[in-house]
Amino acid sequence: MTGAEAEALAVRPAELIERKRDGEELSRNEIREFVLAYVRDEIPDYQMAAFCMAVFFRGLSAAETHALTDAMVQSGETIDLSALGRRVVDKHSTGGVGDKASLVIGPVVAACGVPFAKMSGRGLGHTGGTLDKLESIPGMRIDLGQDEFIQQVRQTGMAIIGQTGDLVPADKRLYALRDVTATVDNVSLIASSIMSKKIAAGADAIVLDVKVGDGAFMKTLEAARELAQAMVDLGREAGREVVCELTDMDQPLGHAVGNALEIREAVETLHGEGPPDLRELVLSAAGHLLALSDLGVDAEEGRARAEAAIGDGAAHVAYERWIRAQGGDPDLEALPSAPVARDAPAPTDGYVQAIATTNVGRASLRLGAGRMTKDDPIDHAVGIVCCAKRGDRVEAGAPLASVYAADETAAARAVAELQACYQVGPEPPEPHPVILDIVR
Ligand code: URA
How many helices, marked H, and strands, marked E, lie in the chain? Predict the structure, then answer.
């Protein structure tokens, strides 16, 4: 930064970092200037990294978190969905393993006559990303421009695309920086990152799925509740209605982990044949989305309509319409398949007591389903199917999981990794539901 640019800021960046380091509350304007100067390249990464670390240890007050979120929204373009003339809904998950829920929830909600407009992200760390899953569908376009996005929601009832170029550039840069400076898992930073994108993307009402457990960023219910409350408050301040579901991530959601495998499971669920935990999460989220829409129903009636849309095939019709609208081929036969399939057998008889979910995500990543570095290509065909879930009874030698790999070496490594992920013992574990709590 040149001396002249430094003078353009009302506060010296180092002074601001120092005050946050010492636990002071910064003003709205100070936070705004700091963030916008960073996006203009007037503050270098090392100072922003130091600021994030100070926030990591000292936290942000509710007013500071609000100011940060506002500044992030103002850093780029925002989308105005009012031309649709309807209350538009959106959904977001904080990130998990095997989380293909958006691929089912979007078509279910659209089939119930409510416009669903969502911008998604790519895989992050050991968690999968909706965009990567969608790109396993041949021809599928995720790079629609703003006008095309709005037009598709109008004509098709839904769209799920990548973030358009200039939406919340502050988050793009901050997130990449936090990823490599050990400053991701802070409630204020996560809440402002997620909510700035949701607010900028324009929906009136949002259901947030805050994952809790081994495979999630939030490891405890207490931390998840704090994050949920922060996001609900940020939404309210921006005039958006937000409901947060806290959901179990102590095991993968459903069975499939990996892009094309997850598309297949999402379609099974749209046909009413999906795994019970995924179906429950979908029905609950869709119920809340319909209750937040302009249909004038409560969450119970919303859930009943969602169930009916799956039962009578309307949700699957909405899925095919959506995929075709974005250039994709909805035929499951068109999805890529891995050349090698191997089972990871149970070492002994017993009950599945726990599944090391982050490690399942990492095993899938190493098979090629995600990126080890930011520019790695993805193999959409590979992944894992966790045949046994927590509480299931298994016989020695029966498959705990099936591995779908590009070659024998990768398959053998993943089989060993998965066996280490499963804890099998003589007693069944305490059951716990997929929906753990609701914050609104
Ligand atoms: N997802 C986001 O978009 N941002 C975070 O900070 C964490 C999860």
Answer: 17, 13
Q: Which of 66, 91, 197, 198 is catalytic?
A: 197
What is residue 368's DSSP assignment? I
Judge if the beta carbon of residue 102 lies within 6 A of ligand 1.
no
Architecture of domain 82-333: 3-Layer(aba) Sandwich (3.40)
Is the CATH number 1.10.443.10 carried by domain 3-59? Answer: no
Cβ count within 10 A of residue 93: 27
Q: Pick the catalytic residue: 93, 188, 193, 402?
A: 193
Backbone angles phi, psi at 423, to 5 degrees: -110, 115
Q: How far is CA 209 from the centre of its chain?
A: 8
- Residue 126 annotated in active site: no
**CA-based R_g, the chain, Å:** 22
Note the pTM of the prediction, 2 decimals.
0.94
- At residue 337, φ and ψ (nearest 5 deg) are -125, 145
pLDDT tens digits, one per residue of 187-216:
999 999 999 999 999 999 999 999 999 999
68 lines ligand 1 (CB under 6 A): no
Pocket test of ligand 1: the residue of 124, 174, 209 to mutate, having most ligand atoms within 8 Å of its CB, is: 124
- The CB of 194 under 6 Å from ligand 1? The reply is yes
- Active-site residue, 271 included: no
What's the gap in Å between 376 CA and the centre of ligand 1? Answer: 20
For the stretch 125-162, pLDDT in tens is: 788 899 999 999 999 999 999 999 999 999 999 999 99
In this structure, the residue with its CA closest to atom 6 of ligand 1 is 190
Note the pLDDT tens digit of each residue in 341-374: 999 999 999 999 999 999 999 999 999 999 877 6
Tokens found for residue 160: 């799920």
Contact criterion met (CB below 8 Å) for 259 and 388 = no
Residue owning tokens 């095939």: 313
Instruction: Break the chain into its structural domains and give their ranges.
Output: 3-59, 82-333, 336-425
What does CATH list as the number for 336-425?
A: 3.90.1170.30
CA dist 64 and 24 (Å) reads 11
Strand partners of residue 355: 422
